[in-house]
UniProtKB/TrEMBL annotation:
UniProt name for this protein: Zinc transport system permease protein
Topology term for the membrane: Multi-pass membrane protein
SUPFAM superfamilies: ABC transporter involved in vitamin B12 uptake, BtuC
Organism: Papillibacter cinnamivorans DSM 12816
Similarity-based family: Belongs to the ABC-3 integral membrane protein family.
């Protein structure tokens, strides 16, 4: 299986996103922003179609448009403080409307369907280079802003009072979310991309450890989910994105059941 170049490309990208997605996702989940991740995942479809329309990299198009939408969400937070849910509706309307308009215009010469469900056949060498750059810059930025991001994740107002430049960091974080989404769309697809960001973190949170152990376990569970989904979907001849989402749910359910059984066993031993 790994003798095929497209599987080598897919494996390389899968390893990168298994590290990047939970590193971004843990901050989204702790800030209760997982729905923003879902909104931006759907927004990436507009960037993909625009990239394809102008014969440019769809990954780059997804990154640029999703970054724009992430910045727009942060900007609109100042205008809809009491109705934050409206912000997501506005961004979804903009992005989905753009995608449908481009697709239905008849000017799109490429098929965007593979980006909806994910396809291991579509990962090219140029995609690998771009995804590697996005992943490296994102992880480096996360390392540099680690303490500020943790502070903001637990208490944004306290971080602002302490002198953390919350507004600027939120804009930077929006770009980081966009990079994680753009890096993942080839493998996971738009429709289930948000699950790759949130579910490994949700699984790690069941272990009830500190922040750093939770982050490490999130990466471990992400690695298990994505690699299992990639290899098994190859043999089943199904879209890797959807099957990876099923694996993520199954792993989460297994950890929750294991935790319940372990708690019951400990209670019985006391």
């Amino acid at each position: 299986m790994l003798s095929y170049s497209f599987m080598q490309n897919a494996l390389f990208v899968s390893v990168l996103i298994s590290i990047l997605c939970p590193c971004i996702g843990i901050f989204l989940v702790l800030r209760r922003y997982s729905m923003i991740g879902d909104t931006l995942s759907h927004a990436s479809l507009a960037g993909i179609t625009i990239g394809l329309l102008y014969n440019q990299s769809p990954v780059l198009g997804a990154f640029l448009f999703t970054s724009l939408c992430g910045g727009l969400i942060e900007f609109l937070r100042g205008y809809f403080r009491k109705n934050a849910d409206l912000i997501l509706s506005i961004v979804l309307a903009l992005s989905v409307g753009t995608a449908i308009t481009v697709i239905s215009s008849g000017k799109l010469r490429a098929n965007a369907d593979s980006f909806l469900f994910g396809s291991i056949l579509t990962v090219t060498r140029s995609d690998m280079i771009l995804i590697s750059i996005l992943s490296a810059v994102s992880v480096l930025t996360l390392i540099l802003l680690y303490h500020q991001l943790v502070y903001i994740a637990y208490d944004e107002e306290a971080a602002r009072i302490a002198g953390v430049k919350v507004r600027i960091i939120n804009y930077i974080f929006s770009v980081l979310v966009a990079s994680a989404i753009a890096a993942s769309i080839r493998i996971t697809g738009v429709l289930v991309l948000s699950s790759m960001i949130a579910l490994p973190v949700a699984t790690a949170l069941q272990l009830e450890r500190g922040f750093r152990p939770t982050l490490i376990f999130s990466v471990v569970f992400s690695f298990i989910d994505i690699l299992t989904g990639l290899f098994v979907s190859y043999y089943l001849n199904v879209a890797p994105g959807g099957f990876t989402a099923l694996v993520s749910v199954a792993v989460l359910a297994a950890v929750m059941i294991g935790k319940k059984v372990y708690s019951g066993f400990r209670a019985a031993m006391v």
